[in-house]
Fold this protein.
Amino acid sequence: MKKYYIVILIVCIMLILTACGNSNSKVVDEYDTSKLGGDFVKSGNEAYDIGANRNGMPIFKDTDKAFNQALIDYADGFTAIQKEFDLKRISKKNWEVYESYGWQLSADNNEDIRNQGKEITSFFDIYENSFK
């Protein structure tokens, strides 16, 4: 009898965990990227490949690859945002503030750095769709 309850408990836990999974992070269709801004979208780099989630929102096919590539491509922009707004180093736990501040870099930064800040904001506009 005890085994019966344990099996039912395990099955219930598995069902709950499955139901709580983030289905928005799964690509279910192609997405027309011609409507999206951001140089990374048009770069041809497979790390930035985009599909549509179940709500039709654009998401990166591999969020980890995309995040890591953005860290490389926009390293100077991330550094400028971190310094100007006194933030902790960018991570998967604090990226939201970088999204907010990216487009707000001051004129004290050169144009290339300000453009990287805008790209960072555009990147995270898509990145966040996997977690909503």
Helices lie at 2-19, 63-73, 75-84, 95-102, 111-127. The chain is about 50% helix and 5% strand. Strands lie at 29-30, 50-52, 58-60.
